[in-house]
Design a protein that fits this description.
- It is a single chain.
- By secondary structure, this protein is an all-beta fold.
- The chain has one domain.
- It has no helices and seven strands.
- It has a four-stranded antiparallel sheet with strand order 4-2-1-7, with no helix packed on it. A three-stranded antiparallel sheet has the order 3-6-5, with no helix packed on it.
- Strand 5 and strand 6 form a beta hairpin.
- The radius of gyration is 12 Å and the shape is globular.
Length: about 80
Amino acid sequence: MAKPNTKAPSKSVDIFCSNCQHPLLKYKKGGKGALVKCFKERITKDFTTHEGTCPQCEKVFARDTLIRGTPALKMIGGKVWFK
């Protein structure tokens, strides 16, 4: 399996909780598809206190995992939105 691209994309997105609209992450997203995973090395700003949990409503929005040998957060469907 190939590693993710080492050069981070220029497009940055803000990720919010679907339940309470609290900002969760700023992330360098590549492509124009849905947000399925966030590689930890591409997260530029983290507003959470516990990884994968919303600090305001305490809902779990992602799971810690390894994707292609790189640490990442795998998003749970419908728990987050981004712009």
